[in-house]
Amino acid sequence: MLRKGYKTYSVMPSEEKEIWFRNFAQQYNWESGHTETVRLAFHKKVAESYTNQIYKWKQLWLKGKIPKNINTKVWEDLQVNWGKQKTKEKFAKNAANRNSDRGGKGVFVPNLEACSMSSKEDQLVEANGGNLVDHVDVMREAYTNKKTDKIQDSLIRDVIDLVQTKNAELLASQPMNSDDDSTAASTNLCRIQINEMVEQTVPKKKGRLVGLARRASSCPSSSQTPYTDPMIMEQLQNKDERIEAIETQNATILAALADQKKTNNEIIDKMKCLFRDEFQ
């Protein structure tokens, strides 16, 4: 369905993106009120996949190879873009930035290959049974060398060590609770607190959090309304509903007991009338 070799998904005409979404929509069903939410999530995911695919094709191009079954027009457009002097200069600048010593912290060394940070986070969530993971888990997975099992980037390593130390102190200060819901909520709160620690610790560069590929403006500050985790809110809501149900049940039982007591008193009064001598 790719008509031209667009260098990024963002420059693809909106009408072509809509065609892609409609083809996707034919395979799945959802409530009509959620269409816009699904559309936004679809384009975000496709943008990541498109970037990864372009990267893989470019690596083949650098080796003088051609991808199998690729549209000739698409391949020609991509080669023109990659061959532009402006593009070469941009790659050279990016390479120089990656090779800078960053104030003594050494070369920036990620281990993501062709995977984005958000895609890596999605993979970790899926591997964790759909449960959310914190920034430290994502950073550790993204920057750990698979051969040496060590984090090569000293800046990222320092951030993770500092946050883990703070987290250990936080856990040590919290009281133990055996209740399952309380434990789950505590774990979830801990994840939020870890994320806040990371966001406060990592350096900011050009409006982004280094090592997270997130905009600093998207992270709540102390002056902003604190983030409320949906899972915790759901658990609190469930507790409120259970408490309300118990209170309703208790009220029903008390009303029934009151009625029974009234009935018993009426029976006793009738018995007294019928058998006066026995009740003297």
How is this structure best described in words?
- InterPro entries: Probable_transposase_24.
- With about 280 residues, this protein is mainly alpha-helical.
- The protein folds into three domains: about 1-100, no CATH class; about 105-220, no CATH class; about 235-280.
- It is about 60% helix and about 0% strand.
- The chain has nine helices and three strands; from the N terminus they run H-H-H-H-H-H-H-H-E-E-E-H.
- The protein has helices at about 15-25, 35-60, 70-85, 85-100, 115-125, 135-145, 155-175, 180-200, 230-275; strands at about 205, 210, 215.
- A three-stranded antiparallel beta sheet has the order 1-2-3, with no helix packed on it.
- The longest helix has about 45 residues, at about 230-275.
- It starts with 13 loop residues before the first helix and ends in a 6-residue tail after the last helix.
Order of helices and strands, N to C?
HHHHHHHHEEEH
Mean model confidence by pLDDT: 77
- What is the structural class? mainly alpha
Number of helices: 9
What separation lies between the terminal Cα atoms? 100 Å
Shape: elongated
Number of strands: 3
Strand order of the largest sheet: 1-2-3
What is the alpha-carbon Rg in Å? 31 Å
**What can be said about the biggest beta sheet?**
3 strands, antiparallel
Low-confidence runs = 220-228
Q: How much of the polypeptide forms β-strand, as a percent range?
A: under 5%
The portion of residues assigned to helices is 55-70%
Count of spatially separate domains: 3
InterPro entries: Probable_transposase_24
Pfam family, one: Transposase_24
